[in-house]
């Protein structure tokens, strides 16, 4: 959660507050001197209720982006028949731990069985230390080339792969730490590989490696996670009521990208806010939606300055540029 900005420069801070007070005073004065229900014939003003105008609360935040993925073993492979063959024996069961080179099963190629009934079966060995996940083969059964026999995985490390916008590539480096939580327990992974997506060059696939203990492995495997990584310098943003932030069609900002923890999209989302400028005119200003706070139903947005007033009233696009009068 962002924190309030300390008053490091008191003079500048007071000047900004004084400027806001002047603007508010001028708006209130216009409310006293003009009938509240009047609208000039030119239609160049708009009347707003006082409660629809607010000063902004500035906060500091650390830019970050989200990593979403499913935790899997660092390596998983399916061992298949290299040639048509029959299974002579199977030495392991699903769930067994094996070492590289351990015999998993023996088989007799069809060509050898046809020419020599007493031929010694071949051995299929484990390609790495791991765990037998599944066994598809059965003894005394014949299989065609490429038929699946066993599935083995290496859980000495875990990983997940997150797909992100290629625009974030400059902020990602192999070796960067990625923090994530599972059931309230914090974990840390490390970026091991970054690839441009083969199907969409506008996306990148980021591989995150997780070192775990044996006890943690069972709890983490198959879990969906949302991690994050910080980048850049501390930034300044504004906390705004969600119902005062709009999309390009001036509809309430879409919350679908913010509903799941940590309530921030991979990259900030475009939005719009009604800002009252120093000349009392309304401006439909573009902002970036950085994060959503579901408990308070507020957005953290970037693109509004500290000396701004904003309107929380629902307006149409024709209000842009009009002079504000308070009711």
TrEMBL record:
It comes from the Bacteria. GO terms for cellular component: efflux pump complex. It comes from Moraxella cuniculi. SUPFAM superfamilies: Single hybrid motif. One of its GO terms (molecular function) is efflux transmembrane transporter activity. This is Efflux transporter, RND family, MFP subunit.
């Amino acid at each position: 959660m962002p924190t309030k900005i300390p008053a490091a420069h008191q003079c500048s801070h007071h000047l900004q507050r004084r400027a806001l007070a002047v603007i508010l005073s001028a708006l209130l004065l216009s409310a006293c001197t003009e009938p509240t229900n009047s609208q000039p014939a030119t239609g160049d003003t708009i009347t707003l209720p006082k409660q629809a105008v607010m000063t902004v609360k500035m906060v500091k935040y650390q830019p970050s982006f989200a990593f979403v993925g499913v935790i899997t073993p660092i390596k998983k492979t399916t061992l298949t028949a290299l040639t048509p063959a029959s299974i002579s024996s199977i030495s392991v069961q699903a769930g067994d731990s094996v070492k590289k080179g351990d015999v998993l099963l023996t088989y007799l190629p069809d060509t050898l069985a046809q020419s020599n009934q007493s031929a010694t079966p071949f051995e299929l060995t484990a390609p790495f230390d791991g765990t037998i996940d599944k066994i598809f083969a059965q003894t005394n059964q014949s299989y065609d080339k490429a038929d699946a026999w066993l599935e083995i995985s290496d859980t000495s490390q875990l990983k997940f792969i997150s797909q992100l916008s290629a625009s974030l590539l400059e902020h990602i480096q192999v070796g960067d730490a990625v923090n994530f939580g599972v059931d309230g327990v914090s974990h840390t992974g490390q970026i091991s590989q970054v690839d441009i997506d083969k199907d969409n060059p506008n996306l990148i696939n980021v591989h995150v490696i997780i070192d775990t203990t044996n006890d943690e492995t069972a709890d983490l495997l198959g879990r969906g996670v949302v991690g994050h990584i910080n980048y850049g310098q501390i930034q300044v943003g504004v906390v705004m009521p969600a119902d005062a932030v709009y999309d390009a069609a001036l509809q309430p900002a879409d919350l679908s990208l913010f509903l799941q923890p940590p309530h921030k999209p991979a990259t900030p989302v475009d939005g719009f806010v009604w800002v009252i400028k120093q000349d009392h005119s309304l401006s439909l200003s573009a902002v970036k939606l950085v994060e959503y706070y579901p408990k308070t139903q507020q957005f953290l947005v970037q693109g509004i300055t500290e000396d701004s007033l904003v309107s929380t009233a629902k307006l149409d696009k024709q209000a842009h540029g009009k002079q504000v009068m308070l009711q």
